[in-house]
Amino acid sequence: MKSKKIYLAVDLGAESGRVLAGEWDGLALNLRVLHSFPNGPVDLNGSIHWNLVGIYNEILTGLAMAQAEYGSSLESIGVDSWGLDYGHLDRNGFLLGMPFHYRDERTHPMVELVHQRVNREECFARTGIQPLFINTLFQLMAEKESAHTCMEHSDQMLFTPDLINFWLTGEKGNEITMASTSQMLNQETRNWDFEFLKDLGIPTDFLGQLWEPGHLVGMVHGKAKDKIQCENLPVYTVGSHDTASAVAGVPASSDGDFAYLSSGTWSLMGVENDRALCDPQSLDYGFTNEFGVDGSIRYLKNISGLWIVQECRREWQAMGEDFDYDQLTHMAREATPFIASIDVDDPVFSSMGDMPRKIEQQCKASGQSIPSSKNETIRTALEGLALKYRQVLENLRSQTGKSLEQIHIVGGGTKNELLNQMTADSTGCEIIAGPIEATSVGNILVQMIATGEISSLTEGRQLVRESFEPKRYQPHHSEQCEEAYQTMRSLNQV
């Protein structure tokens, strides 16, 4: 009899990818990182892409390591990644070109072009998704408008995790939590909105079947099987969008009156609803409605997140100063609080390039003090995030009628204790931080449900509470923080 059951989570983020093992002994779940590797945008002649083939080979390396260590104890594999991006396959299953990165600027003019054909309000009412230039819808629109496109040769479009699943198993399909981020699904039918896409002139013949989380994709086969050296190893869909898995991994009780904050390159803050809210106020507040792993709606807002800090770090690296994230947090802790307030969702912060200068420019344009050191620059960025979280929380309360006295923070950003305390102070809420690996935990919970090991997400969240000890932060009120919040609100008038 096996002493442990091992579930493998492939978790792909914008900065790194990992293969993790979830060790389940019947009492508690333990996570181990087996293999990690860097990830990031690749510039090719002025366009930004992903090296997805390189990513896949790193995944195979990690899965082979798992097979060598655990052998017959391996139960299954699940893959999640960042949202929105995709690749095209031809009729022989070959990848057409290098998949684009969602921040490639070819999509910027497409938002206006789409809204000339179907207005912004109708787009939101149909799909429930915010019209962000990074969305798959606008990426496909850019392809349609381009003279050089893979679209006309495409037999099937697959999102990033779906491509990995296809290469592992040979089976094609689109997992629905990921597809729901694309702005191409109808909220009512939970299917591709073919009429909407036809109105925009976007072909639909390469859109495949939609799979729910927990669907058996197939068994690892072919060259992948040879590389991993496995036998009868199944691959299941999970919450393929990493935020869907992260929310599934939140150790919340069953009453549903809590906010979650998935903290990473992006911050995604929201609640679980039983239905989509597609009203004009939700649109104006920037809320979106994405599908959850258990039929729920993830009503949330995308916030710029630690991207701003990451870009500051990258800029300073290029200048020969290499700080790790712990160093940056220490620098921020040493800086004077509330030198200035920034709106982290200002479009100026959405693109790559000299982020410290962009922070300076926004402070100068709004008549505030300008950060005079790297310490102050990082602190201003972190405080800007915490202040934005308060604004989004207040809007969530007004839209849902929930009290939301607790915020569950999950993901890599939970390691930033300074930001967690800033968030408690700004929002006035108790912060429950952890697990750090909530995305992988949620990924594994769906596999455990699919294989019959546990019966429901409610049981899974109980398992999370029993397996991982969170860290709690209590709020401390300050007049400085209140003044900074009012300044931030005046920048965007929302």
Describe this structure as you would to a colleague.
The protein has 494 residues and is of the alpha+beta class. It folds into two domains: 5-236, Nucleotidyltransferase, domain 5, CATH 3.30.420; 250-434 and 454-494, Nucleotidyltransferase, domain 5, CATH 3.30.420. The chain has 18 helices and 22 strands. It has a seven-stranded mixed beta sheet with strand order 18-19-17-16-20-21-22, with helices on both faces. A six-stranded mixed beta sheet has the order 3-2-1-6-15-14, sandwiched between helices. A hairpin with a 5-residue loop joins strand 7 and strand 8 (95-96). Helix 16 packs across helix 17. It starts with a strand and ends with a helix. The model has no long low-confidence stretch (mean pLDDT 95).
Task: List the keywords.
494 residues; alpha+beta; Nucleotidyltransferase, domain 5; 2 domains; six-stranded mixed sheet; 18 helices; 22 strands; 21% strand
> How many helical elements?
18
What's the Cα radius of gyration?
22 Å
CATH superfamily of the largest domain: ATPase, nucleotide binding domain
> Do you know the CATH architecture of the largest domain?
2-Layer Sandwich
